[in-house]
Amino acid sequence: MPSTPDWPALLSDALAHNPHHSARYIQLATLSDSGDVTCRTLVCRRWLPDTGTLVATTDLRSHKVRGLRRHEQAEACWYLPARSEQFRLRGTVTLTGAEQGSSLREEIWEALPDTGKVLFTGPAPGTPLPPGYHGPDSTPPAHLPDCFALLTLQPVRVDYLNLSTSPHQRWLFEYHRGDAMRRQWHARGLVP
Ligand SMILES: Cc1cc2nc3c(=O)[nH]c(=O)nc-3n(C[C@H](O)[C@H](O)[C@H](O)COP(=O)(O)O)c2cc1C
């Protein structure tokens, strides 16, 4: 049995072995406002190992946001192919829009390519295609649009699977109360 790992270190190490942009896509499952399960691909724009937080961006007018305003729980599934590793990160999502005044929101917006910025200028995602609509403007907006938001996932449960080792490895990390009511991570190995 290998020694107990630490999941942020495992994820940082996995990302170092998967430097390509396509390895920054996560699948985020949430509940819709009517309680149906729904899932989509997002780009993980920041991984903050010190807090164990994932940051993506989204449009506040989208369906996922409507669902998240009712049900803040979500699970991200992140497959990192270089060593066949899967992380399932479950926790709560926080949305940071214009009202919250975040410097990280501005920083991530500035780093977006123009092709990403223009997506926030068109009609709301998931609404019927307007007649004659041929896509957003080709010039990015002069100001940071109000609908541009950070979507931050704070995991409280991480299920890690590695299929590149023999035997395969699976670890479950759960964040709950420990001694003296301090919250801490607990890890246990599972049958893969
Ligand atoms: C490769 C890829 C990357 C994507 N990245 C994002 C993203 O970073 N943020 C986002 O809101 N949607 C992204 N999308 C679009 C979403 O998957 C989804 O279609 C959109 O957010 C609307 O989802 P919703 O109706 O569940 O709100 C991406 C799609 C693909 C295929």
Automatic annotation (TrEMBL):
It holds the Pfam family Pyridox_oxase_2. Residues 5-95 form the Pyridoxamine 5'-phosphate oxidase Alr4036 family FMN-binding domain. This is Pyridoxamine 5'-phosphate oxidase-like FMN-binding protein. It comes from the Bacteria. GO terms for molecular function: FMN binding. InterPro entries: Pyridox_Oxase_Alr4036_FMN-bd, Split_barrel_FMN-bd.
